[in-house]
Amino acid sequence: MESLSLLADGLGTALTPENLMWAAIGVLLGTFVGVLPGIGPAMAVALLLPVTFGLEPTQAFIMFAGIYYGGMYGGSTTSILLNTPGESASVMTALEGNKMAKKGRAAQALATAAIGSFVAGTIGTLLVVFFAPALAGIAVEIGAPSYLAIMLMAMVLVTSVLGSSRLRGFIALFLGLTIGLVGLDLNTGQPRLSFDQPLLADRLDIVVVAVGIFALGEALWVAAHLRRRPLSVIPVGRPWMGRGDWSRSWKPWLRGTALGFPFGAVPAGGAETPTFLSYVLEKRLAKEGHEFGKGAIEGVAGPEAANNASAAGTFVPLLALGLPVTATATIMLAALQGYGIQPGPQLMTEHADLVWTLLASLLIGNTLLLVLNLPLAPLWAKLLRIPRPYLYAGILFFASLGAYTANQQPFDLFLLLVFGLLGLAMRRFGLPVLPLILGVILGPLMETKMREALSISGGEVSGLYNEPVAVVVYAVIVLLLVVPFVLGRLRRTPLSTSAPTPAAAAEAADSDKEQVR
Amino acid sequence: MRTPGTPEAPDSATTAAPERTRDLGQLGLAAALVVIGAYTVYDASTLVVGFADPVGPKAFPYVIGSVLVGLGVLLAVAALRGDVPSPEDGEDVDLTQRSDWLTVAKLVAVLVLTIATVGWLGWAVTGALLFAGATWALGSRTPVRDLAIGAVLSVGSWYAFYVGLGIPLTPGVLDGIL
C-alpha cells in the first residue's frame, strides 16, 4: 500500500534521536499540563502552542502530537483520582474509575485507561492513515460551493446538535464569526472592525484568542467559584493489571475503539456520545453479578478507548478537509495556519512529508505515553494536590507568557484580557466555547469560499448550489435544523431553547463542558 | 443545574423557593449582542465595494451583524420568559456558593498592571509580579515565597525562550544583566 510506505517514510523522519526527544518533551509537557485539575486537552494545547514557535514545522508537529495525546491522557488520570470529572469525555471514565479507585484499585483503573488509550490511539491513527488520503482524494474534486456547504454543516452540527441550548450555541457561533471579521479584508485590503488600530487591522492572533477564551476565561471563572474545601485525592502506586483485568479489558478496548473512531471522523464532533454509548454497551454486555456501579474495569476500559479513538478520528476531517470538529482540533488547525499551512484537500499532496511525519509522530507519541506514564503515574497524582492559588496563578502566568511571546506587544496582553473576560462571561451565561472558536477559525475561510464561488458564477446566486454535493449537504443541514424543532413542537415543550428534561439538561450541560475543554 | 448567585440578583437568587428565579443578567448580554451586531453592520456600511467583486467585503458582516442583533433580541425574550443558563461546572468549581467577583476584579487589576509595566520592566520582573499578585488575589498569604516562586518561573521562562527557542523576550530594566 502506498499509504504504508509513506507512513514508513514519516516514521523514518520522526525516529531520529533529536525528534524523539521533542516527542518525549511534548508527551511529558502535555501530561503535566493535562493532569492539572481544571485544564482539559484543548487548554493544554493552547497554553503549550507558544513553546513550539521557535521550532521547525516538523519538530513542532512531533512535539504537538505528544502534547495532544499527553493532554488527553492527563485528563483521564484527573477524573479517576478526583471525585469530579473535568470534561464530559471523562464523565463515563470517572463513573466507574473513581469507584475502582475508592476500592483500592486505582492502579488497575489507571492501567486499563492508559493501555486502552494506547490501543485505541494506535488503531485510530492507522485508520486515519487509510481514510484521510482517500477522503482528501475525493475532496480535491469538489469545488468552492460544496466546500462552503460542508463548512456550514460542520458549524450547524457543532452548534445545534451538541450543547444544551441551541440559542446559546448560535450566539457563541456568531460572536466567533464577528471576531473572525476583525482585520483586513483579504480581497480588498480594507480594515473591518478595527477601530483605526493598525494592530487590529493586522488580524487577531489566534493564539491570543484561544488562550484568552480557554485558559484565562477558565481561570477567572474558577476564581469566582473556587471550591473552599479541597477535593480528596486518592493515593496511587504504579499502575498494573492482573491476568483477570487483562481478560476483562481487551474486548471493551476494541469495542470502544470501534464506537469512538466513526464519531470522531464524521463531523459530528465530540467524544461525549461514543464514550456514553460504550459505557452503556459494556454495561449491557456484562455478565450476571457484574460490578457496574461498584467499580467495573470494563466501564473504564471501554469509554477510555472510545475517547481516544474519537480523538484520533477527528484527524480525518482535520487533515482531509481542513475541518476541525472539536476544540482541540480547532487549536491544531490554528497551529497549522501559524506555519502558513492551510489544511484542506491539498494538504495531503502539497505538504505530504509533514502530514506523514505528523501521523507517524502520533503513533510514536502514543507509545511514549505508555512507556513514560505508567511509571510516572504516582508523580502525576501528586500534582493534583498543588495548592489552588499556585495552580491558577500559574495558568495566568503561562497564558500571559503565551500571548506575549507571539508578537511581544503589550497590546496582545490587553487583547488576552479582553478575550479572557469574554471567556468568563461565556461561562457565566452558559455559552458553549466550541462554536465560538469554530466561528473564529472557519468564518474567514467560509467567506473566501463564498466569494470564490460567486466570482466564478459572476455573481449569480446559483453559483452557491450548482454542485450536487452542495445540494445534498444543504438538504442535510435543513433536516438537522428542522427535525429537532418539529419534534420539540410535537412534544409541546414551551421553550425550544431550553432542554426539556432534567436528565437531558444534565447530559447536555456535560457536552458543553467538553466543548470548553 | 443550580441557581447561580449573580451580582445582579444575589439575594433573590439565594433566598428563592424551589421556583427558579429569572436570570435578568442575561439582558445585559442581550444588549451587548445588539450593540456589537449593530456596530458590525455600521462598520460594514463604511467599506468600499471593490470592482469585479460580486460579493464584496460588506455582505458577510451585514449577515453576521444582523443575525447577532436578532439573537440578542431572542435572548432578551427568552430571559424574560424565565430561561436560565446552565453555568459551567468543573473540578475546582463550586456553583453552590455565591460568585466571588472581588477575586476576579483583583486578578483583572493584576493583569492590567502587567500590561502597563511589561514594556519597561521586562518579562522577568513583570512575570514575577504577575505570579505573586495572582496568588495573593487567590488567597495565598505568603508574599515572599510567592514572589520567589514567581521570580524563578519568570527568569526561568526568559532563559528557556532565549536559550532553548532563540526568542528574546523583553529584558526591560534587567537589560544587560540577564
Description:
Chain A: InterPro entries: DUF112_TM. Chain A: This is Tripartite tricarboxylate transporter permease. Chain A: Keywords: Membrane, Transmembrane, Transmembrane helix. Chain A: Pfam families: TctA. The complex is a heterodimer of chains A (517) and B (178). Chain A has one domain. In chain A, 74% of the residues lie in helices and 1% in strands. Chain A has a two-stranded antiparallel ribbon with strand order 1-2. In chain A, strand 1 and strand 2 form a beta hairpin. Chain A is globular. Chains A and B meet through helix 7, helix 9, helix 17, helix 18 and helix 19 of A and helix 2, helix 3, helix 4, helix 5 and helix 6 of B.
Strand content of chain A: under 5%
Q: State the major sheet of chain A.
A: 2 strands, antiparallel
Largest pleated sheet of chain B: none
Q: For the record, give the distance between the C-alpha atoms at the N and C termini of chain B, rounded to a whole number.
A: 51 Å
Instruction: Calculate Rg of chain B over CA atoms.
Output: 24 Å
- End-to-end Cα distance of chain A, whole Å, is 37 Å
Transmembrane segments (chain A): 20-49, 109-132, 144-162, 169-186, 206-224, 315-336, 356-377, 389-407, 413-443, 464-487
Domain DUF112 (chain A): 20-438
Organism (chain A): Nocardioides imazamoxiresistens
Pfam families (chain A): TctA
What descriptive keywords fit this protein?
heterodimer; A: 517 residues; 1% strand; B: 178 residues; mainly alpha; flat; disordered N terminus
List the helices and strands and how they pair.
The complex is a heterodimer of chains A (517) and B (178).
Chain A: H1 2-14, H2 17-35, H3 41-48, H4 57-81, H5 91-141, H6 144-161, H7 166-181, E1 183-184, E2 191-192, H8 198-201, H9 206-224, H10 243-265, H11 272-285, H12 298-313, H13 315-321, H14 327-338, H15 347-350, H16 352-383, H17 388-407, H18 410-428, H19 433-456, H20 468-490, H21 502-516
Helix pairs in contact in A: 1-16, 2-3, 2-4, 2-16, 3-4, 3-9, 3-14, 4-5, 4-16, 5-10, 5-12, 5-13, 5-16, 6-7, 6-19, 6-20, 7-19, 9-17, 9-18, 9-19, 10-11, 10-12, 11-12, 14-19, 17-18
Chain B: H1 10-15, H2 25-45, H3 59-80, H4 101-121, H5 123-137, H6 143-164
Helix pairs in contact in B: 2-3, 4-5, 5-6
